[in-house]
């Protein structure tokens, strides 16, 4: 008798879910795969939404992870406009908002995250937007242009990327940040100061330590932002970039262990052995730092897709990676490797004034993280140093006349 093949159901047709479906076929998994997404389009790249695509340098087709035909050709059942409302881990089935039910053998939750909508009066006015989906980005692109005034609520990387893209269209941009500096949650003060100055030199205005009291609107259309100190800033549009929440609700209701992210192991398996969770929605172990962490990046989505695909097909798990991500603003290419957990010192290599430098975060004499601006060798070799936990000489590391190769090798040329 022929053994039946397990049905893999993936909830979330985003970067992680779409990659997993493709990897399963690449790893010669021959069972049925159903990829379910609530958005109307197949899996796509989100990073360009605040960068190349917003600036008009990339078209809609180039956003797609794979062409639409790929899914049928690879026998991947792609369900779009379909939202899973509930997971029943005992009956091994998922139910949809419309009442339909689908059985699974292996379930993968890849539901990503959603942008936070702060509870500010009149935040539902037209022209106030989040930026998470292609539809959000379409709306922003249609609203903003030369001479328009955009207010961005939140000085994080997405807000800064939108500001850079929109300045290129000759629109005015004001960034509002409630902390006393931008990038407070994700970057150190040197980097924050560098980015702020770079943006200011290109016409962006910052209001730091400010509180948004309410939005002004006329006939339902946003006309301005009222700050806590009573000042009003007129505008044509607002982008809210105030952080994201993991879409873990269905997992919590199903009784899976969660802690601001679905908890998984190194195979991306949740507390239920038949259910995996990958991408932004999961909180995973990071062996090089010996901790659990939730990451919001494409490389993380790809890594966990590999972990889950390997576990489902019985392959060897991928080697542990050094996490990384990037941000593009104007002519700046920033690459970040690692996280500065327990870092106790900082080495600056290069010249922030020249927009070519790297910040190395060290714990003792080991590199924990590197943030590199227009400095690919610092990023690549820094990533290597983080991975191999090799001690580094901080005097040599700080000296750009000594190549990164020599710094890593620990000898003079
Ligand atoms: P997503 O890609 O968000 O996919 C999740 C999908 O699941 C979504 O389509 C969602 O609609 C769907 N879904 C959710 N719940 C359900 C449900 N119940 N039923 C059915 N479907 C559901 N990362 C970088 O590394 N570098 C960058 O420069 C960068 N720039 C970014 C710029 C922007 C504007 C944005 C929004 C993100 C950016 N990111 C960047 C982050 C990166 O895109 C995410 O980390 C990545 O998309 C995560 O993949 P994911 O599959 O976990 O989630």
SSE inventory with pairings:
Elements: E1 8-11, H1 15-26, E2 33-36, H2 60-63, H3 68-73, E3 76-79, E4 84-88, E5 93-96, E6 101-103, E7 106-109, E8 113-115, E9 128-130, H4 134-143, E10 149-153, H5 157-167, E11 172-177, H6 189-200, E12 205-208, E13 212-218, E14 221-227, E15 232-234, E16 237-240, E17 244-246, H7 249-253, E18 262-263, E19 275-277, E20 282-286, E21 291-293, H8 298-313, E22 324-329, E23 332-338, E24 345-351, E25 356-363, E26 366-373, H9 376-388, H10 394-397, H11 404-409
Parallel strand pairs: 1-2, 1-7, 2-3, 7-19, 9-16, 10-11, 10-16, 11-12, 18-20
Antiparallel strand pairs: 4-5, 5-6, 8-17, 13-14, 14-15, 20-21, 22-23, 23-26, 24-25, 25-26
Helix pairs in contact: 1-8
Bound molecules: flavin-adenine dinucleotide (FAD).
Flavin-adenine dinucleotide is lined by residues 11-17, 36-39, 46-47, 49-50, 83-84, 110-112, 131-132, 158, 247, 250, 279-281, 296-299, 301, 325-327.
What's this entry about, in short?
The protein has 413 residues and is of the alpha/beta class. The chain has helices at residues 15-26, 60-63, 68-73, 134-143, 157-167, 189-200, 249-253, 298-313, 376-388, 394-397, 404-409; strands at 8-11, 33-36, 76-79, 84-88, 93-96, 101-103, 106-109, 113-115, 128-130, 149-153, 172-177, 205-208, 212-218, 221-227, 232-234, 237-240, 244-246, 262-263, 275-277, 282-286, 291-293, 324-329, 332-338, 345-351, 356-363, 366-373.
């Amino acid at each position: 008798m022929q053994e039946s093949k397990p049905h893999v159901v993936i909830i979330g047709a985003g970067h992680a879910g779409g990659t997993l479906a493709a990897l399963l076929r690449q790893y010669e998994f021959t069972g049925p795969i159903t990829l379910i997404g609530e958005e109307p389009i197949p899996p796509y790249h989100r990073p360009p939404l605040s960068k190349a695509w917003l600036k008009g340098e990339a078209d809609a087709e180039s956003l797609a992870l794979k062409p639409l035909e790929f899914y049928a050709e690879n026998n991947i059942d792609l369900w779009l406009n379909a939202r899973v409302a509930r997971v029943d881990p005992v009956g091994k089935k998922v139910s949809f908002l419309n009442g339909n039910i689908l059985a699974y053998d292996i379930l993968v939750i890849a539901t990503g995250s959603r942008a936070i909508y702060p509870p500010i009066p009149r935040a539902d006015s037209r022209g106030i937007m989040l930026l998470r989906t292609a539809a959000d980005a379409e709306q922003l692109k249609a609203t903003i242009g030369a001479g328009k005034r955009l207010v961005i609520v939140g000085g994080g990387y997405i807000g800064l990327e939108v500001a850079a893209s929109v300045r290129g269209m000759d629109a005015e941009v004001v960034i509002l940040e409630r902390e006393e500096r931008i990038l407070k949650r994700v970057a150190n003060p040197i980097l924050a100061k560098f980015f702020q100055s770079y943006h200011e030199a290109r016409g962006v205005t910052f209001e730091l330590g400010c509180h948004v009291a309410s939005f002004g609107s006329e006939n339902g259309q946003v006309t301005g932002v009222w700050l806590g100190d009573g000042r009003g800033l007129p505008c044509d549009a607002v982008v809210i970039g105030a952080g994201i929440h993991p879409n873990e609700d269905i997992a919590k209701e199903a009784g899976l262990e969660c802690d601001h992210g679905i908890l998984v192991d190194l195979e991306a398996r949740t507390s239920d052995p038949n259910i995996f969770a990958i991408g932004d929605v999961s909180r995973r172990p990071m062996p090089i730092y010996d901790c659990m962490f939730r990451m919001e990046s494409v490389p993380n989505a790809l890594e966990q897709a590999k972990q889950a695909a390997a576990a489902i097909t019985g392959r060897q798990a991928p080697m542990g990676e050094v996490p990384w991500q990037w941000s593009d603003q104007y002519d700046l290419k920033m690459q970040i490797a690692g996280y500065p957990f327990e870092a106790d010192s900082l080495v600056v290599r290069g010249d922030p004034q020249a927009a070519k430098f790297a910040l190395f975060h060290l714990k003792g004499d080991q590199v924990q993280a590197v943030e590199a601006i227009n400095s690919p060798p610092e990023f690549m070799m820094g990533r290597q140093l983080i991975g191999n936990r090799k001690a580094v000489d901080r005097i040599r590391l700080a000296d750009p006349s000594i190549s990164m190769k020599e710094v890593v090798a620990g000898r003079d040329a």
